[in-house]
Amino acid sequence: MLPFAINEYQERINQVKDIMQKRGIEVLLITNPANMNYLSGYDAWSFYVHQMLVIILDEDQPLWLGRYQDANGAKATTWLYDDNIIPYPDYYVQSKTYHPMGFIASILSQIGQGNRHIGVEMENYYFSAKAYEMLKTNLPNATFKDASQLVNNVRLIKSDQEIEYIKRAAEIGGHAMQKGIQGIHAGVRENDVAATIYHALISGTDTYGGDYPAIVPLLPAGKKTSAPHLTWSEDPYQAGEAVIVELAGCYKRYHAPLARTVSIGKPSQAFSDLSLVLTEGLNKALEAVKPGVTCEEIERVWRESIAKHGIKKESRLGYSMGLSYPPDWGEHTASLRPGDQTVLQPNMTFHMIPGLWFDNQGIEISESFRVTEQGCEVFSNYPRELLIQEPLPIDQSGKIS
Amino acid sequence: MLPFAINEYQERINQVKDIMQKRGIEVLLITNPANMNYLSGYDAWSFYVHQMLVIILDEDQPLWLGRYQDANGAKATTWLYDDNIIPYPDYYVQSKTYHPMGFIASILSQIGQGNRHIGVEMENYYFSAKAYEMLKTNLPNATFKDASQLVNNVRLIKSDQEIEYIKRAAEIGGHAMQKGIQGIHAGVRENDVAATIYHALISGTDTYGGDYPAIVPLLPAGKKTSAPHLTWSEDPYQAGEAVIVELAGCYKRYHAPLARTVSIGKPSQAFSDLSLVLTEGLNKALEAVKPGVTCEEIERVWRESIAKHGIKKESRLGYSMGLSYPPDWGEHTASLRPGDQTVLQPNMTFHMIPGLWFDNQGIEISESFRVTEQGCEVFSNYPRELLIQEPLPIDQSGKIS
Fold it and tell me: A6-155, what's its fold?
C-alpha cells in the first residue's frame, strides 16, 4: 500500500538525521503534514488537529503522535510499528481546558527526551503560536531550535519514483486543463467549469486515480484576473472576457501545477501582444535551466526578457514544488527570484509561473519542470500560448443553445 | 457582490469591539481567514501566505494587510476603503531573509499602535509560532493577549441570512450525497466516486453555485472505515464492504456537513444492529436540542442511549459549524461533549456526528442542525439510516457490465 519502498523512507530519515546531527538537534518534532508523509507515509485529512512525527537521533523509527480516532489511519498508511503510534484522547481536541501539546510534552518527558535539544517547525501552518507556548511551558528543560525548512530542504531533490508520480500528476492536470478550457463559454457559470475541472482532477486517467490538489482550481474571470487567488463565483462568463485557469494535477500527494489563460472571443491586440512577451520570457527562462545555474540567474533571464518590452513583474517567477497538503503546493524552499542562490541540481522540480497582474486584468501561462542532467524537462505538453475560445450563441434565457 | 449588507458586517465589528473593550484589547490582529471573511468579506485562497485584518478600537474600519498581488482581491471582495488595503512586497513571501510580520509590525508602529494591548489568535492554522516570535521581536513595547476564539464566539449565533446560506449548502450537500451513494458499487474506483461527489458539490443547483468545502469528501471503505479521516484511493470497491461518505455542501463559505454509511450488498446483522443503536441515539439527542440546554446535556442523552446497548464513543458527539476555510469546517468553539457548558441559543448551528470507529470497521450517520426557538431544525432530509446498495454484476475485466 505504501507509495515508496520502505528503504526509500529510511534513506530520507538518514538524510534528516545527518542534518540534525550537524545542527545539534537531538529530537525533531515534525508537524508539516507533507514532511510527516515524506518520512512515514502518513496520509489522512487529520492535520486540522495537532499531530506530529517525532524523529529521535538515537532511535530507529519515528513516533507518530495524534488523535485517538486517527491512530488506525496511522497504522494503515505508515510503515511504523504499531507500538510507535501514540494517540491522545479526544478531550484534547479544540478544547478550552486541554491542549494536545500538553499530552505530547508529557510523552516526551516519559521517554527521556524532555531535556534535549528539540527542533520544531516554527514556520508552518500546523504549528500554532499556542502550540509552541504549550511545549515551552511543559518542557522547561528542553532547548528549542527552529528547524522550519529542515525536512523541506531534503525534499528539494526528487527520487525517480517521485518524478514518476509528478509525471502522472501532470498527465491528470493536462487532461483537467483541457476539459476546463473546453467548457469556458459566455453564459456558462464559473462554478460549473470548476466542477468539470474537479471531476477531471479526481477521476484522473483510466490507469491513475487523481488525488486532491493542495489548492483548489483558481479561475478568475474578467476584471478578477487582476487578483490571482480569487476562486470561482456562480456568475456566468461574459463574451470578451479573459479567464485564467490555474490548477494542479495531483497523484499520491505529488503535484504538477499548470496555468493557462483563455480569451472568450478575440482578445485585444494589446492583450495578445502581452501574451507573446510572457511566453517569450517563459521560453527563454526554461532554456536557461540546467544544473549549476542558480535560481536568481533563471529569474534574471525572464526579467531582462520582459524589460525589453517595458514590462515588470513584482512577484517571484516560481518556486520548488512536489509533495504537499493544503493550503499550498509549494515546498517553501527555493524560489526563482533575486537573492535566491539555490544551485539547480538534477531532479529538482519547480513551477515557473510568469503571472502578470495589472489593475484591470492579468495573465498567467506557466509550466512545471524538472532539472535534468543537461537542462530541463517540462512536465506538460499543453499549448504554451494565450488560448482563444470562439463564443457560442446564447439564447435569451442565458443558456447555451 | 458582498454576501451580506454592509451594516451586518459593521454590527459584527461592533460586537467584536465590545468584547475587546471588556478584555482590555485595543488592537486585534485577525489571521483566521473565516474571521477575516466574517468581518470584512475578504474571500480568496491567499491564506497560504501571511495576511491579517487589524481591528483598532478607536478606528471605524479595519485594515487589511497582505501580499501585494492579493491587494486587488481585497479591493474586489471587501467593503473596506481602498486606502485601508495595505500590501507588502513579494520578497517577504516564504523567504529565508524577510518575514511579513516584520513589515506588519512596522506598519503598526507607524500608525501609533506599536505600544498597545494587542490581541492575537494564538491557536490558529494561519498564525505560526514564527509569526508570533517576529511580532514580539519587532513590537517590543506592545503587550500581547491571546484572543484565539474571540471572533469565533461571535460567529456562534447566526443571522437569518447566514442560516439561509447554510440551507443552500445543505441542499447542495444532499444532492452530492445522493450522487455519491448512487455511484458506489463493487468494481468502481473510490476516486471516481470522489470525482462525482466533487462535481455535484461545486456545480450545486440550477439556482445556487457550490463553493469548495473546507474538507475534501472523506470516503473510507472496508477496513479503512475504522479511520474517519482517510481520503479515497484508486482501488475499486469490493462487494460486501461498507463505505462511509462524509461531506459538506458549501455555499459562500457556509457549510452543512453530512455523513452516511452505505453497505455494498446486504450488511451483517451485527452491523445493521449497530446502525440502529446509532440512529436511536442520534434521534434522541436531536429531540433533546432546545434553547437553554447545554452542549454536555445533549451529549449525555446520546451517551446514555448507546450505553444501554453496551456501546461507548470515545470522541465528541459534534461541534459548532458554519463559515469556514480549509482545513476544517468546525468553528472551534462549542462541542457536544462532557464538560462543555455552552448554553444552546436560537440560530446556533452544529454538526452532530455520532461516528463509531472500531479496529476493523466504522460507521457514521450524521446531521447538521440549527437550534430554533422551540427545538431543532435539521438541515438535510436525507434518509437517516444505514443505506444498502445492491451489487451490480462485474465482468472479468473488473468493469461494470
Answer: Creatine Amidinohydrolase; Chain A, domain 1 (3.40.350)
